[in-house]
Amino acid sequence: MIGDLSLPVLIASVLTASAPLIIIALGETLTEKSGVINLSLDGVVLFSAMAAFVVAKTTGSLLLGFLAGGFAGMLTGIIVGYFSVYLHLSQVAVGFALSLLCRDLAYFLGNPYSRVQGPTLLAGKLPFYEALPSSLQIILTQPLTVWFALLLIFILYYFFSFSKAGLCLRSVGENPAASFARGLNPGRIQMAAVLAGAFLVGVGGAAYSLSLKPGWGRPQGAEGIGWIGLALVIFGGWHPMRVALGAMLFAFLQVSGIGLQDIFPGVPSQVFQTAPFPLMIFTLVFMHYSTKNNRKQGYRENRFQRIIGKLFMSRAPKAIGKSYRQE
Amino acid sequence: MDVTFQHISKSFGPVKALTDVSLTAKAGTIHGLIGENGAGKSTLMKILTGYQSKTGGTILMDGNEVILDNPKQAARHGIGMLYQEPMDFTPLTVLENFSIGIPGHNRRDLRFALQNLSVRFGFHLDPDRCVEQLTVGERQQIELLRLIHCQTRILILDEPTTGISPAQKEVLFPALKQLAADGMIILLVSHKLEEVATLCDEVTVLRHGQVTHHTTAPFHFPELLTAMFGSVPERQDKAAVREKGSPVLVMQKVEAAGERQGLHHCTISVAEGEVIGLAGLDGAGQSTFLRLAAGLTIPEQGTIQLFGEKLPKKPAASSCAQALRTSFIPADRLEEALFTDVSLSDHFSLKKKQSSFWRSQQKAKKLADTGISTLSIKGQSENTAGDLSGGNQQRLLLALLDPQSRLVLLENPTRGLDIRSGHWVWQYLRNKLPKETSIVFSSPELDEIIHYSDRILVFHDGDIVMDSAVTDTSHDAIAAAMAGMKEYV
């Protein structure tokens, strides 16, 4: 396929590499659907990765490590939620400040655990592994995080589209004043969405330090992922499927960089490491424009378009980033 | 069943929206609540739904006091409100909008209920369409059906006909009468007397946050109009009518969006030296008219000519209008006209067109000081615009006004000013500006319009319903036109 990478290996590595990013981006999608932007993503990913690794290392339990990552994320969620939902501070300012704080805090607190061996979540064979053809054996031998990420895509899709709670959450993101008028409590719903989203982001961070890029150090390897996650949510149109596809695309760009390095030995390796970031932005912008015009006013969809639209088209919650004050 | 308001009061900071309002609405009746914009009708209703909190007073249902702190509690008591601006979620579908706020039902039941109710009331709603593709009337229908589905016993309708067509009105009104006949209490907030007359059994009039009138059907219109707008003794010191000259502003078949209804089929000509007052309820199109003339709003159709020159249909229109010596002073002085944290002298230096890169502090200060003394602004050149009182902000704006303006557009020039400052502003406008200057202004105060203008345009829901010289009309006729009553005129 690309260099030495065969197709099954490529697919397998894309799945493995995209899992943490999918979890992170979907966590942010959940938060933003309720109308709150949690801009602290990048720092929180590192902070929770550090927390997860430290806890897993000291207790020897991977499960506790993942939980620690999740709760570290939630802790930052409390700050973001309280400041933006209840104190009505600028979500952008709070997010930025917290992002920087979390990053430096992670480096500082994690320093004693730098470059040490710790527990790692390895790829596990499926129970019916022997019965599979060899290419599927390669593709489907994955760490648990991959299965969790894939499951999460569908859980969130069904939650937003078909559940009562999902509808309430979306309604708050669209028009908090109207949901208040209908007897909902916008503040509480937003807070819940921020906490749940931050928990997922934390789990995503843990997936970096415990599985994809095991260990802690400076740099850890998850730097910049939070920003990519934020961009994915926006260009993925706040739709779980598109956001996840975007994450896979990013992983594909990263993985193919490794293959391309072998084909072009003359090009400095840094080019291939950084190329996915700008390439990703270009692709996402392109995707964004290609689907944008279909939802103009007065445009009537036929049945097929409606299904496709439900699957893939979505757009920003109307009240995103604005804090709601009861009159 | 009945609902009683006792001595309700509400203040927003120092502003009193409601003072000691008491009224009772009985089951099976439609109770109308009328008054000008800002009379406190919507506030009173939002207190009943728990959307806003009250400052004082009690609300009784069947003689028992009820606590209504949020819409959830109100909904538990069967109180539901159809808000003036549809309180819905435009990107979601009809069915989704219908189901938000209805406790635990499954989708199929809700779809079935929605279809049943639509059939019962003769509405045509496709459950899977996006709400943003619907008209305002259809959006209200969804909300109405939802409220009925929620077992609402006290239904509040806040200006339910502002955004809907006459055909939709034909559907809505019988539905409301039917609901009242079924034993519901309906509270109808409106500023349109005709609607109230056809629908209501009882009417309460609010003016400046107080109950000024209460009556049962049949209604006597002049009585209601006086209660709504107050009665005015004819003024003796009527300002002198000015000489008219050649046309200054000509609008032809202009259609524009803006405010509640936009502006429709506006064809009007303003002559040199005229003083024209734009009357109408808040948001009926006066501001859109002024903004069109100032080039700040671009018309969708039709042409606007200033001093014989066509305004281009692009954002540059406003600088074009300014170059033609047209000045616009908006109502929201701090938001749109002044810079809150910028000093008076800096305002003057911003206004002055200079060729040099540097600005001279001294020159600006000198300009500011002249302005301050000629318009007797209470403030120093170092003060910021935000430090000034409303009246002095208006004086500052007049000081900044291009003295060679040939057309001055003012949006509510005496907003927030006491009588003396208001009088001063008009003194300045009518006497200090050259006689050839045309003045077009809007005001919510009918007195002000009648007193200071030579010609009056009355706006109603985006249409100019009356165009008359001030001498040919009366206070009552204008008030009736503002309330949208054609026959009474």
Describe the protein's architecture and organization.
The complex is a heterodimer of chains A (327) and B (489). Chain A has 327 residues and is mainly alpha-helical. Chain A is globular. Chain A contains 14 helices and no strands. Chain A has one domain: Orthogonal Bundle (ABC transporter involved in vitamin B12 uptake, BtuC). Chain A starts with 6 loop residues before the first helix and ends in a 15-residue tail after the last helix. The model of chain A is unreliable at 293-299 (pLDDT under 50). Chain B has 489 residues and is of the alpha/beta class. Chain B has 3 domains: 2-229, Rossmann fold; 233-325 and 404-489, P-loop containing nucleotide triphosphate hydrolases (Rossmann fold); 337-401, no CATH class. In chain B, the strands form 4 sheets. Chain B has a 6-stranded mixed beta sheet with strand order 6-7-8-3-9-10, with helices on both faces. A 6-stranded mixed beta sheet of chain B has the order 16-17-18-13-19-20, sandwiched between helices. In chain B, helix 4 crosses helix 5.
N-C termini distance of chain A = 60 Å
User: Can you give the mean pLDDT of chain B?
Assistant: 84
User: Nearest-angstrom radius of gyration of chain A?
Assistant: 20 Å
What order do the SSEs of chain A take from the amino end to the carboxyl end, as H and E? Answer: HHHHHHHHHHHHHH
**If you consult CATH, what is the topology of the largest domain in chain B?**
Rossmann fold
The main pleated sheet of chain B reads as: 6 strands, mixed
CATH class of chain A: Mainly Alpha
Could you tell me the strand content of chain A as a percent range?
under 5%
Major sheet attributes of chain A: none
For this structure, what is the CATH homologous superfamily of the largest domain in chain B? P-loop containing nucleotide triphosphate hydrolases
Structural class of chain A: mainly alpha
Low-confidence stretches of chain A: 293-299
Helix content of chain B: 25-40%
In terms of structural class, how would the helical and strand content of chain B be classed?
Answer: alpha/beta
Q: What kind of oligomer do you see?
A: heterodimer
CATH architecture of chain A: Orthogonal Bundle
The separation of the N and C termini of chain B measures 39 Å
CATH architecture of the largest domain in chain B: 3-Layer(aba) Sandwich
CATH-derived topology of chain A = ABC transporter involved in vitamin B12 uptake, BtuC
